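thread: overnight batch results

M.L. [08:02]
morning all. the overnight job finished for the chain we discussed friday. pasting input first so we're all looking at the same thing
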Amino acid sequence: MKFVSTLCLLIAGAFLSASDSEPFRAKINIDSAVNAVLNARGLMFLPAVQSQKENGILFEAEQMNGLEYHYGNTRIQQEKDHTSIWDVKFMEYRFTVTKPGKYRAWYYATYPTNLGYLHSEFMDGGEKISVHDSHFLSPNVWRWHSGPVYELKAGEHVWTFPSPGAWCGKTKLDKLMLLPEQITSDPEKFTAVKTMVSIPQKGEVKLRRIKASLLKKWMFNCDFELNGGSFAAEYRYDDEKFQPIATGKWMEVPANAKYLYFRFQLTRSQTKMLSPFVHNISLMVVEK
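M.L. [08:03]
and the structure it wrote out:
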């Protein structure tokens, strides 16, 4: 499974204007991404793919294929029996259907007030649908509620919750399901439905080279949410070997260096089907 992103990061090839003596955030494009996603907000993770095994499909919310939060300090919520995501600006799930037919969407969520909440979604690039979620019910109660019906053919599909309101307003999302259309109540009876989930054991992102000859020094920063996994950030100049980056430390650029390369690697825990997440990846530089 190979994912090649064309997104531009906040950290990319052309430099922003700044005085020679002041550090500023640089920009670099992604050169390649294998089994990993690095989005435009500097969030890196291993993407999940679900495959249908029975009459429905169960999605753990945190096992997504695409994700962008509203805020850089947002993390997965783990409380008692619930692992959930919240303050989500954009999310996407990729899955394979083996039993074609009409499926109703279901969401297991909780809401912080008794006000009405809604989100938008669409399937396979189709028409965007607004879904009313909480229906002015009691707050802070985990419950299932239903969404639109989709007709799904056998094969691969993409379920998208578009920006900017994928799942926000401090609402929490634990699970999603696609169940046959005729099921209109008691979705909790089907949460044991077997669904195969694939999350890569390892993933890697390489950034496009930077002209080191223009730089005096640089510093790499990020925040970790490793979930039992690991993250390695490495750099090299020209034809040298990659070596580990000391996060949060200024690195002087050798006088004869022409280009600077970066490589990031994520490894998932062997006992958890949950990606490690690295947040707020950034690169500060000082020009010569």
